[in-house]
Amino acid sequence: MKENTMFKSAIRRTALLLLFAVAGIGAAPASCAGQSSAGPAPAPPSKARTATPQTATSTADEPGPTNVILMIGDGMGLAQIHAGAAIRRGQMAMFHYDHMGLVETRSASHYVTDSAAAGTAMATGVSTTNGFVGLDPEQKPHPSILSLAKAAGMATGIVVSTSAVDATPAAFFAHHPDRWDGEAIALDFVDAPPDVFIGGGRRYFNARSDGRNLLDNLKRAGYAIAASREELENESSDRLAAFLFDDKPPPVSNGRGDFLPAAVTKAIALLSGEPDGFFLMVEGAQIDSGGHARDLTYQSTETADFDDAVAVALAFSSKRTDTLVIVTADHETGGLTITNGNPQAGTVEGAYGLDNHSGIMVPIFASGNSAGLFSGVYRNTDIFEKIRVARKL
Ligand SMILES: [Zn+2]
User: Fold this and answer.
1) Distance CA 55, CA 151 (A)
2) Which residues make beta-bridge pairs with 338?
3) How many angstroms separate the CA atoms of 142 and 125, rounded?
4) 223 φ, ψ to 5°?
5) What is the mean pLDDT of residues 205-221?
6) Share of the chain above pLDDT 90, in %
7) What pLDDT is attached to residue 82?
8) Residue 292 Cα, ligand 1 centroid: separation in angstroms?
9) Phi and psi, residue 378, nearest 5°
10) Which regions of the chain carry the CATH code 3.40.720.10?
11) What is the pLDDT of residues 51-76, one digit of tens each?
């Protein structure tokens, strides 16, 4: 108890020191500009940090990407990446990216975001209230980058190691003020499904409280339905809804195997036949679960598994010039820090400060066509804008 109090007062002192440091630095983040008007060196206006002017000029005379793959490690901060790299003895696909940046993750309602608001920021470019998917704070729906891609004739896909109706995938197709209302979000899914979905959450479609079987709606719309790994592997339809799990898949440390990288391989094979290109969102969802559980083995094995999926995307994009691959996170989970490790043995030790999300910035990596747009420090809403400008959507 005493230790805890001392820890808290140490945090308060550190916070105070940081505040002084920020006030004295000219290039303070835009978020602080309003509060530091009495400081010695006012920060530049926040407009200077928005993405559009820079991205517009840097892509004006080059053809943008045909294909875009956006990969989101839910809860994957720098310490989680470090822990994943440690158990892989430093061999991470993520480290082979051409450009990197840092992303501020706060939502419109909270300094510490949830996955719904962060997913919505990346999917629609709108900063919103925690808990909302695809809506702004006034509950007005906004089109996602996936729906813009679809409208432009691109093929679209979602691959997740969680349920289809979880907050992160939901932000790309749903418009709902309650991220936990899985059955309502499933209705939004069948209204505007991606061409290819691979993940879990079947029960929100075929074991609903209203008695409806939404898998029939998908079949009527021309979708092949897969319910097992074998069915998925034998499927060649370019309209596919593969619900391999009733709800959330198990952790990779408890029998999920190579589901996620294999699903990304399959999705790319099905989507890449479209001449107008494709947009694919991939979520490594359970890095977050490991952080909530304060379980470093859970979290680092999920990060390493997500990196295997990243390797699949890189193997596809590195052979061509028309594909942009982006890897980032919606927020950090667990307040993880690394306390020890042994690179030869592939082991790592860490300590969790939280069993929830933290407010720290998350890394972003980009590779391939227009990847340079993703260098820098910016808000999560700019990810939408940068993809939109690069792909000319
Ligand atoms: Zn979480």
Assistant:
1) 22
2) 350
3) 9
4) -90, 135
5) 98
6) 82
7) 96
8) 6
9) -155, 175
10) 58-391
11) 333 333 344 456 899 999 999 999 99
Catalytic residue among 36, 115, 163, 358: 115
Cα(167) to centroid(ligand 1), Å? 10
The span from the CA of 95 to the CA of 314, in Å, is 11
- Phi then psi for 32, rounded to 5 degrees? -95, -10
* Confidence (pTM): 0.85
How many residues are listed for the chain in this entry?
393
The alpha carbon of 378 and the centre of ligand 1 are apart by a number of angstroms equal to 22
Q: Which fold has domain 58-391?
A: Alkaline Phosphatase, subunit A (3.40.720)
- Rounded to the nearest whole angstrom, what is the distance from the C-alpha of residue 285 to the centroid of ligand 1? 9
Our answer to whether residue 115 is catalytic in this structure is yes
State in Å, rounded, how far the first CA of the chain is from the last one. 54
